[in-house]
């Protein structure tokens, strides 16, 4: 898929471009207006060529800290949220100023995980973004840092960008950072480290390169690889590239071998499954026997109570739960038709026994296949 995949970038009609703080700020000390203006020119060129673009932008907290004359990043949540509140206006104003000469309008979109946890709000967010793109507006998306807490946050803007790519069926997710791409080892410590020009996003050998214990992992490549895999659920290609280089976006548009291209050979998942993939906070877990694991992963079946050997967590009907194999590895996740208390009573039992065990009739599946996604 190599040359064809690179060539397909020239035909990508819908781009999600995520810009990291290292690209947008002056070493974390306020916004780098020159970088924002350069990015705007790149986006304008894409728009003039007929592409639609959504920007997922970091930088609000850094901008707020600079305006508040705070030299150290605080650890207290309320202080970070205050900095984000001050910085968001500066960030959007900087984008508006950069796009104004061309006549393009910007729209600020602040999202939290609650906006995707609810199916209705998820569809509303999708409709809003679709409408803005149809109107020729450039959405500037960020997490709603002023109100979000650790329990309901996306975790990082790479994940947010991937979910936006799923949300609007993007062709391409571009993650602009301060690295040339993904290397086989840390280029800051190994002079002969090799840039990985292209790989399958689901290649398990990549996990070792970006593990928590490596410098690459600490440098944020874990979240970028995770984002690429999430974006692949809607069929989007993903690129990790150096956003400090002025010609990066233009080179990508020409199909030049810039950065690391992460491809997928999997078919795009239905919209409902993409929504399920956006739910990041499981309430519990069920451990499955080998037959249930095979049925879900290889045969696309629903999960029946008979395949469950253990239950953990405290969840209610409709909550997201993880499905684990006998080694504790997650193989799937989905919306459970029964509470944790009820699931413990049903584990290992036939679906025909549900009414006699619980005292009421219910779904024969613990998790229906329409509400189940594989994750391995």
Structure description:
With 376 residues, the chain is of the alpha/beta class. It has two domains: 2-274, Acetylglutamate kinase-like (Carbamate kinase, 3-Layer(aba) Sandwich); 282-374, Archaeosine Trna-guanine Transglycosylase, Chain: A, domain 4 (Roll), CATH 2.30.130.10. The chain has helices at 2-8, 21-24, 33-48, 60-67, 77-99, 114-117, 119-134, 157-167, 205-209, 215-231, 248-253, 271-277, 290-297, 340-346, 354-358; strands at residues 14-19, 52-57, 106-111, 138-143, 172-177, 198-200, 237-242, 260-263, 284-288, 308-313, 320-324, 330-335, 372-374. The chain has an eight-stranded mixed beta sheet, with helices on both faces. A hairpin with a 5-residue loop joins β11 and β12 (330-335). The longest helix is centred in the first third of the chain and has 23 residues, at 77-99. The chain is globular, with a radius of gyration of 22 Å. Residues 213-219 have low confidence and may be disordered.
Describe the secondary structure blueprint for this structure.
Elements: H1 2-8, E1 14-19, H2 21-24, H3 33-48, E2 52-57, H4 60-67, H5 77-99, E3 106-111, H6 114-117, H7 119-134, E4 138-143, H8 157-167, E5 172-177, E6 198-200, H9 205-209, H10 215-231, E7 237-242, H11 248-253, E8 260-263, H12 271-277, E9 284-288, H13 290-297, E10 308-313, E11 320-324, E12 330-335, H14 340-346, H15 354-358, E13 372-374
Taking pLDDT < 50 over at least 5 consecutive residues as the criterion, the unreliable ranges are 213-219
The major sheet is characterized as: 8 strands, mixed
Counting DSSP E segments of at least 2 residues, the number of strands comes to 13
C-alpha geometry: globular
| CATH fold node name of the largest domain | Carbamate kinase
Query: How many domains make up the 3D coordinates?
Result: 2
The radius of gyration computed from the alpha-carbon positions, rounded to a whole number of angstroms, is: 22 Å
Structural class of the secondary elements? alpha/beta
Which band does the percent of strand residues land in? 15-25%
Individual helix count:
15
Q: Please identify, by name, the CATH architecture of the largest domain.
A: 3-Layer(aba) Sandwich
Assigned CATH superfamily of the largest domain: Acetylglutamate kinase-like
Percentage of residues assigned to helices: 25-40%
Order of helices and strands: HEHHEHHEHHEHEEHHEHEHEHEEEHHE
The rounded distance between the terminal residues' Cα atoms is 22 Å
């Amino acid at each position: 898929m190599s040359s064809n995949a690179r060539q397909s970038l020239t035909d990508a009609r819908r781009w999600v471009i995520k810009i990291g703080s290292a690209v947008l700020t002056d070493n974390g000390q306020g916004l780098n207006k020159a970088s924002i203006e350069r990015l705007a020119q790149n986006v304008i060129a894409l728009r003039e060529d007929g592409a639609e673009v959504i920007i997922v932008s970091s930088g609000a907290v850094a901008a707020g800290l600079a305006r508040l004359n705070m030299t150290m990043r605080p650890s207290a949540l309320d202080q970070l949220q205050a900095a984000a509140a001050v910085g968001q206006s500066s960030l959007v104003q900087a984008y508006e100023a950069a796009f104004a000469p061309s006549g393009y309008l910007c729209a600020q979109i602040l999202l939290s995980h609650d906006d995707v946890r609810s199916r209705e709000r998820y569809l509303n967010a999708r409709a809003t973004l679709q409408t803005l793109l149809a109107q020729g507006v450039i959405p500037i998306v960020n997490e709603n840092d002023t109100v979000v807490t650790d329990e309901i946050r996306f975790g990082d803007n790479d994940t947010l960008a991937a979910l936006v790519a799923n949300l609007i069926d993007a062709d391409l997710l571009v993650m602009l950072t301060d690295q040339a791409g993904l290397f086989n080892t840390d280029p800051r410590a190994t002079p002969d480290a090799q840039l990985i020009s292209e790989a399958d996003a689901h290649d398990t050998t990549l996990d070792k390169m970006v593990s928590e214990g490596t410098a690459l992992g600490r440098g944020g490549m874990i979240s970028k690889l995770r984002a690429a895999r999430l974006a692949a659920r809607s069929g989007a290609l993903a690129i990790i590239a150096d956003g400090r280089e002025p010609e990066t976006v233009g080179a990508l548009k020409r199909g030049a071998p810039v950065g690391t291209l992460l491809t997928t050979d999997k078919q795009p998942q239905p919209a409902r499954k993409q929504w399920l993939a956006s739910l990041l906070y499981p309430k519990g877990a069920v451990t499955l026997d080998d037959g249930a694991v095979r049925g879900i992963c290889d045969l696309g079946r629903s999960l029946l109570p008979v395949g469950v050997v253990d239950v953990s967590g405290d969840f209610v009907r409709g909550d997201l739960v993880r499905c684990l194999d006998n080694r504790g590895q997650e193989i799937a996740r989905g919306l459970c038709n029964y509470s944790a208390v009820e699931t413990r009573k049903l584990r290992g039992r036939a679906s025909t026994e549900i009414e006699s065990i619980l005292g009421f009739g219910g779904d024969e599946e613990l998790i229906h296949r329409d509400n189940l996604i594989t994750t391995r």
